[in-house]
Amino acid sequence: QTCALPIYYYEQRFSTLDQINDTNASQLGLAWQFDTATDRGLEATPLVVDGVMYATGSWSVTYAVDARTGKQLWKYDPEVHRKYDNLACCDVVNRGAAFYKDKVYVGVLDGRLVALDKNTGKVAWSQTTVDQNQPYTITGAPRIAKGKIIIGNGGAEYGVRGYISAYDAETGKLAWRFYTVPGDPSKPQENKALEKALPTWKGDNWWKIGGGGTVWDSMVYDPELNLLYVGTGNGSTWNRNLRSPGGGDNLYLSSILAINPDDGELKWYYQTTPGDSWDFTAVQPMMLADLQVGGRLRKGIMQAPRSEEHTSELQSHHDLVC
Question: Is residue 279 among the annotated active site residues?
Answer without folding.
Answer: yes
